[in-house]
Design brief:
The structure holds two protein chains of two kinds. Chain A is mainly beta. Chain A is about 0% helix and about 50% strand. In chain A, strands 2, 4, 5, 6, 9, 10 and 11 form a seven-stranded mixed beta sheet that branches. In chain A, strands 1-3-8-7 form a four-stranded antiparallel beta sheet, with no helix packed on it. Chain A is globular, with a radius of gyration of 13 Å. Helix content of chain B is about 0%, strand content about 55%. In chain B, strands 2, 5, 6, 10, 11 and 12 form a six-stranded mixed beta sheet that branches. A four-stranded antiparallel beta sheet of chain B has the order 3-9-8-7, with no helix packed on it. Chain B is globular and about 40 Å long. The model of chain B has no long low-confidence stretch (mean pLDDT about 90). The chains are: A mainly beta, B mainly beta. Chains A and B meet through β5 and β10 of A and β6 and β11 of B.
Chain lengths: ~120, ~110
């Protein structure tokens, strides 16, 4: 079974631009979660989608948004990029949403650099 | 509020030596606890998890962790480390609102 894939792996943008990141979960997984990882803040939960609906949201500004498609693939969008948005964005998929006991499988991440 | 503390930012051990990575959590109810490992340029891989039952949990790659409720700890151990264990390790707690809260991580360095 293929793992979680994220595209692109690396991205360089400038302040004020917007960016869209993509995540394809493991086949059969319907829950996709997004995390932001930075050296200062560590791993922070962004949001979780299940069956095309946002189930959970972390404490991030409205510039961060996401969606999930009927095939469970998910995208996250960041508008009006700021320097502080430079981070590794990780996507994780699991079979069941709302079950903390369900194992999350992480993708390799997208490294976003904002200049 | 739920939180996870990994007191050691960096740890260095010699290859073949034993390892213990510390993790303390703060959570009002019975916690769900996890240890993940992240190799450079990679995503996170689950090493082991604790939900209930036996407080000593066996994971992959020869790792184990022990849940101690009285100390609010979930320390990760390995009897003999290999150079390939050099990575960053994250402890996490499953929060009541279905989110997972991660610690800041401990970077493990292995001396040859």
């Amino acid at each position: 079974k293929a793992g979680v894939t994220q595209t692109p792996r690396y991205l360089i943008k400038t302040r004020g631009q917007q960016v869209t990141l993509s995540c394809s979960p493991i086949s059969g997984h319907r829950s996709v979660s997004w995390y932001q990882q930075t050296p200062g803040q560590g791993l922070q939960f962004l949001f979780e989608y299940f069956s095309e609906t946002q189930r959970n949201k972390g404490n991030f500004p409205g510039r961060f948004s996401g969606r999930q498609f009927s095939n469970s693939r998910s995208e996250m969008n960041v508008s009006t990029l700021e320097l502080g948005d430079s981070a590794l964005y990780l996507c994780a998929s699991s079979f069941i949403a709302g079950e903390v006991t369900d194992t999350q499988y992480f993708g390799p991440g997208t490294r976003l650099t904002v200049l | 509020a739920q939180s996870v503390t990994q007191p050691d930012i960096h740890i260095t051990v010699s290859e073949g030596a034993s390892l213990e990575l510390r993790c303390n959590y703060s959570y009002g109810a019975t916690p769900y606890l996890f240890w993940y490992v992240q190799s450079p340029g990679q995503g996170l891989q689950l090493l082991l998890k604790y939900f209930s039952g036996d407080t000593l949990v066996q994971g992959i790659k020869g790792f184990e962790a022990e849940f101690k409720r009285s100390q609010s700890s979930f320390n990760l151990r390995k009897p003999s480390v290999h150079w390939s264990d050099a990575a960053e390790y994250f402890c996490a707690v499953g929060a009541g609102d279905d989110k997972i809260i991660f610690g800041k991580g401990t970077r493990l360095h292995i001396l040859p």
